[in-house]
């Protein structure tokens, strides 16, 4: 659908280390993770887990 146009696809909601690889594989280039990041005081570890899951 987007072809070669430089369009970012953003996914907001339900982004976790488990779901992030699937949404990236589906074409998302921007992930918004609220609850998955702020669920514990160690925000960096939560963000790192999502990044690691995406490869």
Which sequence of strands runs across the widest sheet? Answer: 1-2
Count of separate DSSP helical elements: 3
Characterize the overall form: elongated
Instruction: Tell me the strand percentage band.
Output: 5-15%
Biggest sheet statistics: 2 strands, parallel
- Tell me roughly what share of residues is in helical segments: 40-55%
Radius of gyration (Å): 12 Å
Mean pLDDT: 93
Q: Supply the helix-strand structural class.
A: alpha+beta
Task: Provide structural commentary.
The chain is an alpha+beta fold and 55 residues long. It has a domain at 29-55. The protein contains 3 helices and 2 strands; from the N terminus they run E-H-E-H-H. Helix 1 links the parallel strand 1 (10-12) and strand 2 (30-32). It starts with 9 loop residues before the first strand and ends with a helix.
